[in-house]
Fold:
Amino acid sequence: MQLPARHKTEMFLVYLMVGLFLLSFLQALVMVPGAVEIPYSRLVQLVKEGKVESTVIGADEIHVTLKSGIETDEDLKKLAEQQRPFFPLYRMEDSRPVTFKVTRLPGVEKTALVQQMLDAGVTIRGDVENTFWNNLLFGWILPIAAMMLFWQFLMRRVSQNSSLTSPLTLGKNRAKIYSENDIKVTFDDVAGVEEAKAELREIVDFLKQPARYQALGGRIPKGVLLVGPPGTGKTLLARAIAGEAKVPFFSISGSEFIEMFVGVGAARVRDLFEQAKQKAPCIIFIDELDAVGKSRLSSAAPFGRHDEQEQTLNQLLVEMDGFDPSKGVILLAATNRPEVLDPALLRAGRFDRRVVVDLPDVAGRLQILQVHARRVRLAPDVDFRTLAARTPGFSGADLANLMNEAALLAVREGKEAVDQTSLDRAADRLMAGLERKSRVLSPRDRDIVAIHEIGHALVALLSKHADRVHKVSIIPRSIGALGFTMQLPTEDRYLMTRSELEDKIAVLLGGRVAEEIVFKEASTGAQDDLQKATRLARHMVCLYGMSEALGPQAFADPQGGLYLREKDRPLPSGMEYSERTAERIDAEVAQILEKLHQKVTALLMKNQETLRWLADRLKERETLEGAELMRLLAERNRDGNDATLESNAAQEEGFHDAILSAPAS
Structure:
């Protein structure tokens, strides 16, 4: 079995340490120990007694050799025995000279001692220490070795976190390469995008049977661009194509081409396509293409974009022109900002086909929930149709997160399986935020929030074109809301009429008007509602041409990307019309809001008793489901109360869910 390189290094270090230890041990056994040290005063005594044969005076030590054949004191004999090795390699004579060393005393004049040695006939030699090797070792070799080790350690750390491993590897592409057996994702794992799957099946068929298309003179598109909102499954679709075709898959992000050095990105593009040609047939997938393919005309700089980005884009354009699609190399790319891409990148012959991966409809959401439910233990009461109907605007990633949150909630509550309650609570958590039951409201604040939320719900029930009420709650949420009224459409719709927009604004004003009727004054809780209502009224006038006074005119352009546009985004501040027209626009917006304010006031004044009664029920239960709210109203009408309520089940849908909240003061 071949050991990994890391294990080989570890074993080498272990063997090295054991070898050094054994070598040191053997040296201690067989080598002659160095001279044994004696006190300075004993040296003076030995000189006076005439027992010293010779001395070697060094800078710090004096080495003393005693005369042979003289009577040695017992203490010196014991010290001399320490100079014998445990296992001598050769026979040592007992009459050999005995050597000791003495450390020179700092600040003591040595002239007197030297004179005594001369008088006693001692041979005196000097020892000048050779510092060349010490200077070489400690002044040059060790510092340079330490610097090299530190540099190697630093470069190894950098190589783990950056592309700056070596100048020779800067141009290597950083794509993750998956073999045909590594990818287990197929089209069965992708749901809710049937049209996109149908478009991409042709690519899979070409990779499997290229001769079938080449026989008729056809060629597969060089590039396929997947566009759509975030989280809709563009990357998953690309992996599914590779999994279905059983071909190698190169995956890289557009930002990984760009580096601080000019020319690195272009070199990586060349290396990527070169490797792909060697492994053909295969698929190259570039995620977030806008990071490298941004239009050269859209830069704010007067002389074009950054040189590195532009060179990388130019190299990508050249490579897409140069490779032959008949070889079986398919380029897939994904972005949610197609409007910023360079026109040269989108022309025919490069990205020939554009596949839109949009948000799923109710049927698509049902299929996505069923796919993600394969890994979750479900209770028998789970109804995915209801869950799909109450999650319009959710992407595939949102639905996957919903299923995971439901599973976590079920585990936290000690359940054996995920039931419908867990799914509903997970959906509420994603749409309205986490419940904050620890926040205790004062009785007055609690009354205001209850009246505010019931005002929203009651206006929605009384409005012909409003979405149906799904849930009303006065439990504070983590998004800063003290309560919320959730409306859900009954079907997927993509257009809104003027009546529907006006009813939407009326529902937004319902909370504020209810406070004015019951408490005779307004609170700060309607701040978010007023912002949304004013913005929607201004859109009616400036974007949709729904003003009778101004006629069918558009006074502003929508801002933001096609798929990244913010919902209810404010209109741009720059005006393309006169001051007089601006005044007329402001007057028309104010007129729309005032008209709807009066309409909502009339509705709630007529049903004031019902408003107060429902608010009391909401304070008792804290949360009322839409069906429960309708049941309470039906019971109240059967009891013969004076208030009559003509409720409706709204059939129209807006562009997104309306979650009307009462923010904290």
User: Anything to note?
Assistant: The longest strand covers residues 481-488. The two ends are 70 Å apart (CA to CA). The mean pLDDT is 78.
